[in-house]
Amino acid sequence: MIRHQQTLILSPYAALYDIVVPKDNILRQINELVDFTFIYEELEAKYCLDNGRNAIDPIRMFKYLLLKAIFELSDADIVERSKYDMSFKYFLGMAPEDTVIDSSSLTKFRKLRLKDINLLDMLIGKTVELAIERNILRSNSIIVDATHTKARYNQKSPQEILQDRARKLRKAVYAMDDSTKAKMPAKNTANVLENEIEYCQKLVTFIEYQSGIALVPKVLEPLNLLKETINDDIEQLRLAADPDARVGHKSADDAFFGYKTHLAMTEERIVTAAVITTGEKNDGKQLQTLIEKSKAAGMQVKTVIGGLLRKR
Predict the structure, then answer these.
(1) Do residues 278 and 113 touch, judged by C-beta distance below 8 A?
(2) Of 75, 185, 218, 228, most Cβ neighbours within 10 A?
């Protein structure tokens, strides 16, 4: 059952936020600018509204994911930081003395509550709506073009991804204690994914229970990232390395492996629509979809300008 928690914080320590979270803090600015109550409507079908135990407020959970995306941390680390980072607690709508969630709750929210929700279209739509309300968006023209986006795994196999993250973890450990090199589990030499997973699990176990430095932040973050890769993304790692990506061409002699992000943007530089395709897709064929999505987001489209976005 959804419990609406986003109310005035009643705490004898609430005044601390005015001291430690300045007005120009990005999280304070987002909180003051964005009305997150749309999350209730978007996720209503994912909860039982009149039965069961009270759920953790979905706005708070959604904000946790925003923090995770902004600061590129694992579930465990983003929750850990929210214990002591006052800007995080302020953003999450918590009192300074409040306890935080268990990171497993964030993982569950990510995998179950947000399943089948088109977050990109939803967030773009809310951005346009906010721009209209604030009288920022005044034009009725959109600029359309495509930017090239490399595939997430950049043609790496799942085994190579694990090897890369394990390598970063070992490097962090060696920087703290070079003597651990002689104690590390033997690296996998077989070209078998299951063997690489087994090695990474041994590496995690060694660092957690035998290295003595697992709680050092510079070690803990890559450690948690490797653990999350093994435990949370294991089914993705068993797939071929980004099988949907295709080779595209910026010019006759300049190819890239990945995707195209087809964008529509107003003259005020507000994105009104996005369509992600494989790299070989023609830009022009996405025009109608971009126009329709822009209109659905609330934009009144009278003019379309092509090819002015700078490739990144």
Answers:
(1) no
(2) 75
Q: Are residues 168 and 257 in the same domain?
A: no
37-75 per-position pLDDT tens digit = 877 776 766 655 555 456 678 889 889 988 887 887 889
- 131 within some domain: no
Per the structure, the count of domains in the chain is 3
Phi, psi of 129 (to 5 degrees): -60, -45
Using alpha carbons, list the distances in angstroms from residue 236 to 157, 159, 241. Answer: 11, 11, 9
DSSP 257: E
- Please check whether residues 230 and 164 belong to one and the same domain: yes
Tokens of 225: 């990232």
Q: Is residue 127 part of a domain?
A: no
For residue 114 the two structure tokens come to 């947000």
Residues listed for the chain? 312
Residues 237-251 have a mean pLDDT of: 48
* 237 Cβ contact partners less than 8 Å away, ≥ 6 residues apart: 158, 161, 162, 193, 197, 229
Domain that includes residue 200, residue range? 158-237
Of 215, 237, 259, the domain-final residue: 237
Structure token pair of residue 208: 């957690």
Q: How far is CA 224 from the centre of its chain?
A: 16
Domain-ending residue, one of 221, 237, 253 = 237
| Helices of type H across 158-242 | 158-176, 193-209, 217-232, 234-237
